Amino acid sequence: MKPAANEIDRQAAEWAVAVDAGRLSAGQQSAFEAWLAQDARHRGAYLKARMLLARVRRAGETGHIEYVPHWFTPARRRAVLTGSIAASLAALVLAVGLNWGSMQPKTYFTAIGETKTASLADGSTVTLNTDTRIAVHFRRATRTVTLEHGEALFDVAKDRSRPFVVHAGPVQVRAVGTSFVVQSLANRPLQVLVREGTVRLGSFSSTAQPIVTLHANSRATIVGLSEAKVETLTKEDVEQDLAWREGRISFRHQTLADAAKAFARYSKKTIMIADPQVARLTVTGSFVATDPAGFAKAAALSYGLNATENENGIYLTYK
What we know:
The chain is an alpha+beta fold. It has helices at residues 5-20, 26-38, 40-62, 74-82, 85-96, 235-241, 256-264, 276-279, 292-303; strands at 106-109, 116-119, 125-128, 133-138, 143-155, 164-168, 171-175, 179-184, 191-196, 198-203, 212-215, 218-223, 227-232, 248-255, 271-272, 282-288, 305-310, 313-318.
C-alpha cells in the first residue's frame, strides 16, 4: 500500500529541514537518497518542502506568511496565518517533529593514528588527520567549521552565496570553492596550506583588512593575531605535505629531531634522541605514519645507529 500524500509531505518536510541544517550523517545521507528514489512523488514533495522553507524565511524578513502546507492541522494553520513569525516557525517545527532552534553542530573526530574522510551536507568533503576534532555548523546563509585541534583538508563545494569559513583559534579562514588545509597543533603556530583556489585569512580580534590572501601552492604560518609568514610551494611540496592522507609521512632533508616530533602525532610510541649530534642528522623519504619503530630502524641502518625499543619508547643512539 502506497503512503498517503500528506504522509509523504510530512517525510519530505523532515528531510528538508535536516538537509538544510547540515544534520545528515553518512548513513542518513544514504537513507535520504534511497527515500528519494523509492517513489516518484518523493522528489516533488521534497522540492516543495524546500520552497516552503524559503518562504518561511522570507516571512521572517517581511513579517508576512504567504504560504502554509495543506497538511497542517487547522490549529497549526491558524497559528501560521495569524501568529507572530516566531509562532509561525514554531508551528512548522511542531509539524515536522524537529526542534529548529536546538540543532547542534555535527562533530567529526579521529583518534591518534587514524585518518577519516567525511562528506558534508553542502557537497564539500573534509579529511581529518590524526587526533583531530571539528564541529560543522551549516545554516542557510553560512557554512561554518570550527577546528578544535589537529589538521584537516577541506575540499569545498562552490557556493558564492554561502561562504565556507573555518575557525581555528583566533583566526578565520574564508573560502568559496577551493581545497585547503588548516593545521592547529599545541605549542605550534597555526598553518594554512592552499592546494587549489584562493582563501582569505582574518582575525577574530580585529575588523581590519584580512591578514593575508593565499593562492594555490602557498602556505601561511600565523604569527600572533595579525601577521602571517607566507611561502610559495611547488606542487610536489604540497603533495608531500598531504602524504598523511595515504597514512604516510614524507620528509625532505629534515632532522631526525623534527621527524621524531612528526611521528609523535601518530603513535603513542615515541622516538627518543638524547644526543644532539644524532638529532641533527637529516632524513629524506616516505614512511608509514603509524610505524615509528620501522622509521627508527631505517634511520639506524642509514647512519650506523642503534635503535633500541622498550615500553617507554624507541631510542636512537650512536653505537
